[in-house]
Description:
It contains three helices and eight strands. It is of the alpha+beta class.
Amino acid sequence: MAAGAGPLRWSWCRFGDLGVDDLHDALALRCRVFILEQGPYQDPDEFDRRSWHLLGRDDRGALQAVLRVVEPGAKYAEPSIGRVVTAPEVRGTGLGRVLMAEGLARCESVFPGQGVRISAQARLQRFYEGLGFVVVGETYLEDGIPHLQMWRPSPGGR
């Protein structure tokens, strides 16, 4: 799966609890994908400070996967998963699905009974539908890329 062979070691913490190394590695991976591959935009934003951050490192300690969960009420009424990224060298291995499954499980643990809302790149609609998300509304541009708002009800209710 990951470049370092075995399963990932996950860390889950609030922004203020990220160490400088985790913060650096997360922002560097996000920059590699969201800025260098997709074009310039402001990646670190005010939502980082109001989020939980999930980082997945391989057995060598290299960061392979990151996402953030913005707390309810900050961006949407419910928790929101975003900044979902895997290292380019592990794409196509299923790690994105593993990352999202881990993120959804963390959401259910911290925000039980609440659904999750995302702003997904339109090209990834089928990927997110495979995780139980449904499209809500029309396609819109975000940073010049077509996006869809998507919703996934909690397995436990609401």
